[in-house]
């Protein structure tokens, strides 16, 4: 079990690129893995500026979500309401696995509502 200082650690916020596809998915993977390795129990992937995400990018988000959960952490996605990314992640079935929030401040708050499969 992590010590109190790790549980109380500030969330790590990772700003993701405008496009997440086969060419940038490895970069996204590396950024998020580094955030998970920091030991923070909460990783926030900010997709506010992301306008497209293909199946490869969605696959990496799923992988990092599972990886974070195995390390007793949580991965939360930030996508503003009405952003095309919300619809893309619905079509790629990522929104059922990872919680999606409207803002970074909302994602930093304790969960209020149903748990997602990869939330702890």
- Remind me, CATH topology? Transcription Regulator spoIIAA
Structural class: alpha/beta
The number of domains: 1
Contiguous low-pLDDT stretches (5 residues minimum) are 1-7
- Strand content is 15-25%
Structural features, described:
With 120 residues, this protein is an alpha/beta fold. The chain has one domain: Transcription Regulator spoIIAA (2-Layer Sandwich). It is 38% helix and 17% strand. It has 5 helices and 6 strands. A 4-stranded parallel sheet has the order 1-3-5-6. The protein has a two-stranded parallel ribbon with strand order 2-4. β5, α4 and β6 form a beta-alpha-beta unit. α2 runs parallel beside α3. The two termini are 13 Å apart.
Short synopsis of the structure:
The chain is built from five helices and six strands; from the N terminus they run H-E-E-H-E-E-H-E-H-E-H.
How do the helices and strands line up, and which of them pair or pack?
Elements: H1 4-7, E1 12-15, E2 19-20, H2 25-37, E3 42-46, E4 52-53, H3 55-70, E5 74-78, H4 84-91, E6 100-101, H5 104-108
Parallel strand pairs: 1-3, 2-4, 3-5, 5-6
Helix pairs in contact: 2-3
Annotation keywords:
5 helices; disordered N terminus; about 120 residues; about 15% strand; four-stranded parallel sheet; alpha/beta; Transcription Regulator spoIIAA
């Amino acid at each position: 079990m992590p010590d109190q200082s790790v549980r109380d650690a500030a969330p790590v916020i990772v700003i993701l690129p405008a496009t997440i596809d086969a060419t940038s998915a490895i970069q996204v993977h590396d950024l998020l893995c580094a955030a998970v390795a920091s030991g923070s129990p909460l990783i926030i992937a900010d997709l506010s500026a992301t306008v497209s995400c293909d199946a490869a990018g969605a696959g990496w988000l799923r992988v990092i979500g599972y990886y974070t959960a195995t390390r007793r952490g949580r991965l939360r996605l930030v996508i503003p309401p009405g952003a095309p990314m919300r619809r893309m992640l619905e079509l790629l079935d990522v929104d059922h696995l990872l919680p999606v929030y409207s803002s970074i401040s909302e994602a930093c708050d304790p969960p209020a509502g149903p748990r997602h499969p990869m939330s702890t």
